[in-house]
């Protein structure tokens, strides 16, 4: 029975009509990505509306965001690096090799979780101070993060193994992984924050419990007969060639998310430097913008995650026409989503801000900064597909280069230069300019790459 299901999924990846298949794989993953964003966003919504201390607490949470992003980024190293390689191996007909990718990824996630938890616990206060915390915001940041770190293993397993579910084509199961945790977090947040009067610590407890349930769900499925790839102790023994190839490919999505963290740290420090008496308000504004950015990217990540198993499988099968058609439809869907969300941010930023805070000063400031920072974000509909197609097709070098270009190579230098001309507003302008340059460069490089594949596969 299971063999029949596996053959059916492989048949769909190899021969089904691209657009219906892409939509079928994309919708549940997109829903999962949107719901996944609610983990931190719902926390900020509840915390931002806490009577009397909402804005200060939101600023404290904003300072923890880079660490939370780094924790999530490490799950991408085994997950986003191993899952496409497992799918390529399935396309080549090598199930045994595909299973080694899965199980070595789990070994990596357990090791990573231990190092992160111990390292952060020992250095938590100096790290937060280095990120810009002061005597007002530090207690809020420590209260949240010291509890959140306890659940690091659950975060790594849920986020790091879920791509191995999606890459098999079981995107509905992958959706449930995220949805059950996020819905539980939404339910538990007000109970722990307000009913039990635990405040910001209650938000962290609710998040840890929710992530634990998601991790249990992932493990249970990947141990079941329904899964093509299964967890087992034998294949968890470290295979350093497998680990090397996972890290080589996973470094791009890992770097992409670490970039986000590094950029938030740098921007927060620059906002303190150039924001003057409004520096704490600017950091709170950046916390809201980071949440809005998460919402923006989730549908785009869902689309490229839905395209990934099709691209990876047909890369292994050397089927150029299906690669090209998948990229075309993924671009159309991604650009359409990006334009719709861009319009919302340009036309009604104040309504979006009110979801996170009732502070009129913060709403007024963020309505301005949102329009500046996200003025060109619509072009990322194209950029996300091109960049992540490199990952799905196993191109290590290009996936790494274009993973770091937008943030580290362009945004950061611009964020240091532009404030000398435009003041604090130049910090927000840096993002808008880097979006345009990166999209243009990546499009040219990807077009050359896909044309070379056509020659190589003699399509």
Automatic annotation (TrEMBL):
It comes from Clostridium muellerianum. This is Multidrug export protein MepA. The keyword Signal does not apply. It is a multi-pass membrane protein. CDD domains: MATE_MepA_like. Belongs to the multi antimicrobial extrusion (MATE) (TC 2.A.66.1) family. MepA subfamily. Its main location: membrane. GO terms for cellular component: plasma membrane. It comes from the Bacteria. GO terms for molecular function: antiporter activity; xenobiotic transmembrane transporter activity. It is found in: Cell membrane. The chain crosses the membrane at residues 21-41, 61-89, 101-124, 136-158, 170-188, 194-222, 242-267, 287-311, 332-352, 372-396, 408-427, 433-450. GO terms for biological process: response to antibiotic. Keywords: Antibiotic resistance, Cell membrane, Membrane, Transmembrane, Transmembrane helix, Transport.
């Amino acid at each position: 029975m299971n063999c029949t299901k596996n053959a059916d999924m492989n048949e769909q990846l190899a021969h089904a009509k691209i657009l219906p298949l892409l939509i079928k794989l994309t919708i549940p993953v997109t829903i999962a990505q949107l719901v996944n964003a609610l983990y931190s966003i719902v926390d900020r919504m509840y915390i931002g509306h806490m009577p009397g201390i909402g804005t200060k607490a939101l600023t404290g949470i904003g300072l923890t965001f880079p660490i939370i992003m780094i924790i999530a980024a490490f799950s991408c190293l085994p997950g986003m690096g191993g899952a496409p390689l497992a799918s390529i191996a399935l396309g080549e007909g090598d199930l045994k090799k595909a299973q080694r990718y899965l199980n070595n990824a789990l070994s990596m996630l357990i090791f990573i979780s231990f190092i992160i938890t111990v390292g952060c616990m020992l250095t938590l206060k100096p790290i937060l101070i280095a990120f810009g915390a002061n005597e007002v915001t530090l207690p809020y940041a420590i209260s949240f993060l010291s509890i959140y770190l306890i659940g690091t293993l659950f975060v790594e397993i849920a986020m790091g193994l879920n791509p191995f579910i999606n890459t098999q084509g079981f995107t509905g199961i992958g959706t449930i992984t995220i949805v059950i945790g996020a819905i539980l977090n939404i339910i538990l947040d007000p109970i722990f924050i307000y009913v039990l009067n635990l405040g910001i610590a209650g938000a962290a407890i609710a998040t840890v419990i929710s992530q634990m349930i998601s991790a249990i769900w992932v493990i249970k499925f990947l141990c079941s007969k329904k899964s093509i790839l299964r967890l087992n102790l034998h294949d968890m023994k470290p295979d350093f060639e497998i680990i090397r190839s996972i890290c080589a490919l996973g470094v791009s999505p890992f770097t992409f998310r670490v970039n986000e963290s590094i950029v938030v740290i740098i921007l927060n420090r620059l906002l303190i430097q150039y924001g003057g008496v409004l520096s704490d308000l600017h950091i709170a504004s950046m916390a809201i913008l980071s949440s809005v950015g998460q919402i923006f990217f989730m549908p785009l990540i869902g689309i490229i995650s839905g395209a990934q198993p099709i691209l990876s499988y047909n890369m292994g099968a050397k089927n150029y026409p299906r690669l090209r058609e998948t990229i075309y439809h993924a671009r159309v869907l991604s650009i359409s989503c990006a334009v719709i969300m861009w319009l919302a941010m340009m036309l009604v930023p104040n309504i979006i801000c009110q979801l996170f805070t009732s502070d009129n000063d913060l709403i007024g400031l963020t309505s301005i900064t949102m329009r500046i920072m996200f003025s060109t974000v619509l072009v990322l509909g194209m950029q996300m597909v091109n960049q992540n197609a490199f990952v799905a097709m196993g191109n290590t070098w290009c996936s790494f280069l274009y993973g770091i270009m937008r943030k580290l190579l362009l945004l950061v230098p611009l964020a240091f230069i532009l404030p000398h001309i435009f003041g604090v507003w130049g910090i927000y302008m840096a993002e808008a300019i880097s979006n345009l340059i990166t999209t243009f460069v990546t499009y040219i490089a990807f077009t050359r790459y896909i044309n070379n594949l056509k020659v190589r596969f003699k399509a």
